[in-house]
Automatic annotation (TrEMBL):
GO terms for molecular function: metal ion binding; metalloendopeptidase activity. Has a dual role in the assembly of mitochondrial ATPase. It comes from the Eukaryota. PANTHER family: MITOCHONDRIAL INNER MEMBRANE PROTEASE (PTHR21711), MITOCHONDRIAL INNER MEMBRANE PROTEASE ATP23 HOMOLOG (PTHR21711:SF0). It comes from Pleurotus ostreatus. One of its GO terms (cellular component) is mitochondrial inner membrane. This is Mitochondrial inner membrane protease ATP23. The keyword Signal does not apply. Belongs to the peptidase M76 family. The lineage of its organism: Eukaryota, Fungi, Dikarya, Basidiomycota, Agaricomycotina. It is a peripheral membrane protein.
Length: 208
């Protein structure tokens, strides 16, 4: 196990112990839902299987439940529910940020798509086109852009709803990339790779 992963896990472990009883309850609930998804979620099991077949098996301990930085969430227009660390290969699930187990399932699936892309396609996360492609795929394949999720966000569309959601969320994510100078650059990156990346559903046969 890499030293980078150990350092990242230790930092998250330290954070987990600082939030009092409420934080511990959130982390316990997160772990319970995570355990269920790793046993029963079709999308999670499918991605875990294909990651293993590709030589990138994901041990359960590499999927970490921990509190996320509330100041970062407050500064974002899209509250954070998870993340993927290219350096360590670990996935973070933000304990206390999920309104349902289905929400966690979509988040974990999203981050596993990033991990799949990182493993198979050697993504350069500082390259905006690379980042945009993985965000398009992760948002499209994870269930993040289901109509019910969009309604919960207060976004109601009846024409090309899925595509518009994927595009919007991909632009938001790329805009947050440290290498991205502004939203316009993020939009250009998403537009440049849109056709090929939206059509690429690997390892799924179709959009989940």
């Amino acid at each position: 196990m890499s030293s980078a992963f150990e350092k990242w896990r230790q930092r998250l472990s330290d954070m987990t112990g600082l939030g009092g009883d409420q934080t511990k309850l959130h982390c316990q609930g997160c772990e319970q839902w995570k355990s269920h998804l790793l046993q029963y979620s079709p999308s999670v099991l499918f991605l875990m299987k294909h990651l293993k077949l590709s030589g990138c098996a994901v041990p359960p301990e590499n999927i970490i439940c921990a509190p996320c930085d509330p100041s970062a969430a407050a500064a974002s227009s899209t509250p954070r529910s998870g993340g993927f660390s290219p350096t360590s290969g670990a996935i973070l699930l933000c304990a206390g940020s999920f309104f349902s187990r289905s929400h966690m399932e979509q988040t974990l699936t999203h981050e596993l798509v990033h991990l799949y892309d990182h493993c198979l396609f050697k993504v350069d996360w500082g390259n905006l086109r690379h980042h945009a492609c993985s965000e398009i795929r992760a948002n499209s394949l994870s269930g993040d852009c289901k109509w019910t999720r969009e309604v919960r966000r207060g976004v109601v569309r009846f024409s090309k709803q899925h595509q518009e959601c994927v595009r919007r969320r991909a632009v938001l994510s790329v805009t947050s990339n440290a290498a991205c100078p502004n939203k316009e650059a993020a939009e250009r990156a998403v537009n440049e790779v849109w056709d090929s990346c939206f059509a690429d559903t690997r390892p799924f046969d179709e959009i989940y």
